[in-house]
Amino acid sequence: MVALYCRDHHTSADGGTCAECRELLAYAERRLAKCPYGKDKPTCANCPVHCYKAAQREQARVIMRYAGPRMLWRHPLLAVLHLVDGRRRVPHPLEMRRARRESPHDT
Ligand SMILES: [Zn+2]
Fold first, then answer.
1. How many Cα atoms are found within 13 Å in the side-chain-facing hemisphere of 70?
2. From ligand 1's centre to the CA of 97, what distance in Å?
3. What is the Å distance from ligand 1's center to 88 Cα?
4. How far is the centre of ligand 1, averaged over its atoms, from the C-alpha of 35 (Å)?
5. Among 2, 61, 84, 99, which residue's Cβ finds the most Cβ atoms within 10 Å?
6. pLDDT, tens digit, for every residue of 46-98?
7. How far is CA 56 from CA 60, 81, 97, in A?
C-alpha cells in the first residue's frame, strides 16, 4: 500500500519507493516486531495499542486512506478480508496477560 501511494505521490530517481516511504516501512516493521499481538495483529485502526508515534501514525493514516479504496480494485479478496478483520475486536494486552494468568492450562 505504501508503494502504491508513493508511486502516485512521490518520485524517486530509480522509480522505486522513495527514501521517506522506505523509512516509514522500516519503522512499521520495527513496531510490528514489538507488537504483543504478533501475526494475530488487528488492523491499526482497531488496535488498542497506539504504538506509532504521532508523525508516523498520521503518515500511515494518509497512505491507508489513499490506498485503501484502490486496493479494492487491485486485490478485492484481500481488501474484503481486511475489512472483515477491521471489525474483529481484540483484548488489550493487559487483559490478555490477565486471562493467561487465570487459565494457565488454556494455551
Ligand atoms: Zn514515497
1. 12
2. 38
3. 30
4. 24
5. 2
6. 777 778 888 999 999 899 899 988 888 888 888 888 878 888 888 888 888 88
7. 6, 24, 28
